[in-house]
Amino acid sequence: MTPASWRDCQAWRDEGLTLSTSSNEACKLYDAILTQYVKWKNDETMGGIEGCISALQAADPNFVMGHMISTGLELVGTASTTRLNERLAGAVRRTVELANAQDITHREKLHVRAMELFSHGDFPKAADAWEDILLDHPTDMTALKFAHDTYFYMGAQLPMRDSVIRVLPHWKPHNPLYRYLNGMLSFGLLETRLYDQAEKVAMEGLALTPDDAWAVHSLAHVYEMRAEVDKSLSFFERTEKDWQSADMLASHNNWHWALNFIEKGQYEAALEIFDSKIFRFCKSSGAMLDIVDACSLLYRLEMEGVCVKDRWQELFQVTRPHSDDHVTLFNDFHFLMVSLGAKDSSTSRRLLEGLQELSKEPGNNQQHHLAGTVGMPMCQAMIEYDQGNHDRAFELLYPLRYKILGIGGSDAQRDLFSQLMVHAAMKSEKKRNQKLGRCLLMERDTVRPNSPLTQRLMRKALVLHD
Predict the structure, then answer these.
(1) pTM as predicted
(2) What backbone phi and psi angles, to 5 degrees, belong to 240?
């Protein structure tokens, strides 16, 4: 039995968020799943999200919102696609069929529609559908959180921020999960470069809820974007006990921790975090966030001249099964880093060919629409860089610098591609490219003053081009 604190049918009705089921147990399990999603934490006493999904389906096999949240969570995880995974495609179809066959609320129908649109890669329309729900039901955390994640996947920074701002006046401290809004708002503020406000809001959230891993994560971003390395390191050390239990985000927060060591040039410390935490997590969880973090960390270290030995080969065993997914370009670029690092040219070629094929008829898939203009040239640039063709790599990268936002991810995550562009420029033989590289470093130094990494690159550029 689920704890009494979870909301039953009547509790959901009282909040104006009616769930179309007569099973109190199903309603409570839905609440448990949503809560774990928001907290980024599997509750082992409940069997985690997976255990709750199984129990929910047993409690009411035809509960539409139960199907919507379980299938929606798998989709937003981006580790699988309905294009290749027939079981997942069937789960989407089943949810749509149940919604059409039952007398459910308009809000629930919109949820199903949004989930179906997301499954086709139509991120903008999926977000619109969740926003339609929030207009009339601003305390629907399921809609708010799915919209938040969808905006993130398409690099829609302003909508991600404003989505939370719009609903805030309607939330009151007695609303369940109210305390987790600060982390979401803070993340939107920092991704729109409002770092002081983002820090303040995250701190307020952590004062209420020290274990809000998303607010911790938001502060990590603020410190990263302001290059406040020592402040970040002391924050992580001080709060580790609060956020390491949030198993769905702990590895990502460890990734942020490791970035501080790369920033300082303390590469062994970063590798230690990779070996003991990040790679171990990504192998056991199979979660896409954990996987791309592992890819990114190794690539950043290698750009810095660190020998990562056979780690590429080990990570390749994790990424290779995803080479044909093409859910997001962000993921694809990270898989390519690994196949290049592992020297598996056939997988690199297959990834590129698959992307090229999908770019020809993208349909309503937002990411596939960008495959031709952003995806292919970025992949080609990474290949050229890997082969030592630095002039060509830079000339492919430079026109993408303001277009890359659409691949999704955060400013901190996408900074890897800015670093790659700087490295390609510095290693280029053409004076013009070298000059542009120095311009890029001046930009970095102005936007993120006192960055040890930027200063290191500037010194290197002076030595190379004097």
Answers:
(1) 0.97
(2) -50, -40
